[in-house]
Write a structure and sequence with these properties.
mainly alpha
Length: 336
Amino acid sequence: MDLLHRLFNLASSVADLHTTFFLFFPIWFHLRKDTALRLIWVAVIGDWLNLVLKWVLFGERPYWWVHETRFYGNDPVPALKQFPITCETGPGSKVYSRLHNLCLSFGFVTCSDLHYKVLQGTSINTSLCVRFLQMGLCAVMGLVLLIVCMSRVYMAAHFPHQVIAGILTGILVAEVVSQLKSIYSASLNYYILTTVFLTSFAVGFYLLLKAMGVDLLWTMERAQKWCVHPEWVHLDTAPFASLLRNMGTLAGLGLGLHSPLYTDTKKRGYAFRIGCITIALVLLYVLDGWTFSPDNHMTFYSLSFGKSTLAILISTTLVPWALYKVFAIQKEDKKS
């Protein structure tokens, strides 16, 4: 049972958006830039849609629902085991599941890339090999998704129907957003306007519902009341923390791609790209250790925005620029 717990805990952690921004994106950006752009856009748009619709659906989470419902009457309430990642504070409705992260990163994106190579194949043998690789990759992804689904239910964070709905809508959003050609050549103004619009819409929608008497922070009270360990309730799982992180990521991508320091690593060799990936991952690991006090919510949200922006800038601009300068200096030294 302990092994099962570790497996499910690992699966939930890997499928989190945090892993997308701090691990998957730096790797994909320096190997296949278009794939990395799709990854960020699908993650941000999907999670934003998830946030907005969560406020309407009022989804429950198992770990507090069993204590609040009248379903069991006088019968004993099921004893659900809780874990450090169980006590998420947002509504439980997964209109757009975190599972899209894995779907896009290693499933739909890579499978579609391989499918393109099949169509462009120079021989039947090459096409067959790529097709088998595509089928094998998709089969592995299916198994991984199954484990992640089971982990979300096992951790008492979601009901089975929420996980299934999350997968279906996650696939739909990933497919729709991936088809938008504008995301591959978006200008800085496009990124800024999109960030401002998404943020303004979410905040405006929140204020509108609040003015109508809807308590959108009801889940915070439930989480604090029924989580067996108060220290497991973190502000970074709150809706606005998620919103500001995602908006910081999108803003950082726009600033990074259009910075005067930006260096397109596609024109560089694999040694340069691998160096960028390695250094970026190390710096992001260090940055990830930067935590903030949740005492002041506005400060916490602002710093979360800044941290997410910096994380993307490290991968897209700062590391490639610094490494390029180092190589340029070395070349000048050799010539002299």
